[in-house]
Specification:
Layout lengths: L7 H10 L9 E2 L5 H14 L7 E2 L13 H5 L11 H11 L5 E4 L4 H9 L1 H4 L4 E5 L22 H5 L1 H8 L5 E4 L1 H4 L5 H8 L4 H14 L15 H8 L6 E8 L5 E4 L5 E4 L4 H12 L8
Parallel strand pairs: 1-2, 3-4, 4-5, 5-8
Antiparallel strand pairs: 6-7, 6-8
Helix pairs in contact: 1-12, 4-5, 5-8
Length: 292
């Protein structure tokens, strides 16, 4: 995950940490300043009782997007030893449990592309990749009450086209949540319930949210879009985002096109928002889960 730029990653991680049926084998940082992202995760996991979850450092890249939650991250602890390499970590865990590992891809596909390039046979034994990314029949929009725009270049895909092309050509099972189904906004009632809940986890998310709001960036809004939370909710309740088999081609300029041919992804084109919020809100407002 590329936690620290937009705020949806923090909400996605909060839902994961509140879902004991999911064993978090580890978290890899992705895109931009991956070392600082690791410090953000170190602090959040330590302060919420989940310090035992391994964090591996992904490939650092240029990143034009503001690291809005850098102040929180800078107060995390620097690792005493160099953190594990994300590519080594991903491939080691896949080999350790072939056919059992789900990769939840919540950022540009740089680490995944590198893992495929290094050992395509090992990567081919992953159970599935569940991802937020792409735009199939609908693009970005400010509100559900405005007309649907044509498909756009979505950030996660367009940031690393070669990584995305490698994944969609890999033959592994892919569950894809594009812009079509992930532009779910967190309204004031839900925000207030989360921000006033008072658990260590909701307190951490609240602080990250306010740092996100308090930093200049082009998508600033009091009402964040929960893009990255949708694939997590799908893991918990697949009916929250029903999928359709499609063949997706990633163009060289970063579009995800629906093309003829054998399906290479299960794609959610529309979310069941009441089901989504039922899962999301009940989990975040439940008693804190024990460390995993």
């Amino acid at each position: 995950m590329d936690i620290g730029d937009d705020i949806d990653d923090a909400f996605a991680l909060a839902l994961l940490l509140q879902s004991p049926e999911i064993e978090i084998v580890g978290i890899t940082t992705d895109w931009g300043d991956t070392a600082l992202r690791g410090r953000l995760l170190e602090r959040l996991l330590r302060e919420t009782g989940h310090a035992g979850i391994p964090v591996a450092q992904g490939i650092a890249t240029p990143n034009p997007t503001p690291f809005t939650q850098a102040r929180y991250a800078q107060r995390g602890l620097a690792p005493a030893q160099p953190p594990p390499d994300a590519i080594d970590f991903i491939l080691r865990e896949i080999k350790r449990q072939p056919g059992q590992i789900t990769i939840l891809a919540l950022g540009p596909l740089t680490n995944i592309g590198a893992a495929i390039a290094r050992d395509p046979a090992a990567f081919g034994t992953v159970k599935q990749v569940v991802m937020m990314g792409g735009s199939v029949r609908a693009g970005y929009r400010k509100s559900q009450y405005v007309p649907v725009r044509p498909a756009d270049k979505e950030y996660n895909i367009a940031s690393d086209v070669k990584g995305a092309q490698a994944l969609f050509g890999s033959g592994v099972p892919i569950v894809m949540m594009p812009l079509d189904s992930t532009q779910i906004r967190l309204d004031e009632v839900e925000r207030n319930a989360i921000f006033g809940h008072g658990s260590p986890l909701t307190d951490a998310v609240t602080l990250l949210y306010h740092q996100w709001i308090d930093t200049y960036q082009p998508w600033s809004s009091n009402m964040p879009s929960l893009f990255d939370v949708v694939p997590v909710a799908w893991l918990l309740d697949p009916a929250s985002c029903p999928t359709t088999p499609l063949r997706i081609a990633v163009t060289d300029d970063g579009l995800t096109r629906e093309v003829a041919g054998k399906a290479n992804a299960q794609v959610c084109l529309a979310s069941d928002q009441p089901r989504f919020f039922n899962t999301f809100m009940q989990r975040l407002l439940a008693a804190p889960q024990k460390a995993q």
